[in-house]
Amino acid sequence: MLDNFILLAETEVSAAIVVINLFFVFGLELVIAWVYRKTHRTLSYSQSFIFTMIIMGLIANLIMMVVTENIVGAFALLGAFSLIRFRTIMKETRDIAFVFFALAIGVAVGTNNYVVALLGTLVISGIILLLNQYNFASAAASGRGGYILIILAKPPFLPETAATWHTALKTQQFLSAKTLDEQFTEYTLSIKLANESASGAFLAALRNTPGVERAELMSGRDTVEY
């Protein structure tokens, strides 16, 4: 009876290959997770995203081992996964790239392309670290970026009226104005400082302007919705 059960439960992939593939993928996913942590800059960092990324790589590897040379199983699995809806919103575009990176490595190992998986992990990780090291395409390097300035004020303040704080600006662009009550108005401006290191002095001069109750300065670099 035991022999019959073993024959019935026999799979196309040996147990040793399954275990080796899973541990190999796990090691490569740890490298990807380390690169993600090393190069992450914004406030959207999430430990659960790291866990999810690693697990998705492992699952992709498992799926490819199941459906290899089994077209019927592939279509059945595709139909099952079509029932799943992912409602998590990616707060940063680079997170999507890392998810696909993790999935691609899992797929490569699941199809026994070990050299592709290993070299792909090392080369792509090296490229990511290199771009991060040299701050490639950053707002500062391209002369773009700047700050979002939010001012809560009451009359006689108007953002277009010449004042001391204007001398610290390189450029300014009016974005919106919102009336909070009969007295206060919230102004939102996009600005660039003439001297990036003088943000404290700029805010001090702005707060001393007649009518200003509160001023907030948010960097436009590496910011996401959170």
Automatic annotation (TrEMBL):
Q: Name one Pfam family in it.
A: DUF4956
InterPro entries cross-referenced by the UniProt entry = DUF4956 (IPR032531)
Q: Which domain of life is it from?
A: Bacteria
- Which keywords has UniProt assigned to this entry? Membrane, Transmembrane, Transmembrane helix
| Keyword DNA damage in annotation | no
Transmembrane residues, as ranges? 15-36, 48-64, 70-86, 98-131
Which protein, by its recorded name, is this?
Answer: DUF4956 domain-containing protein
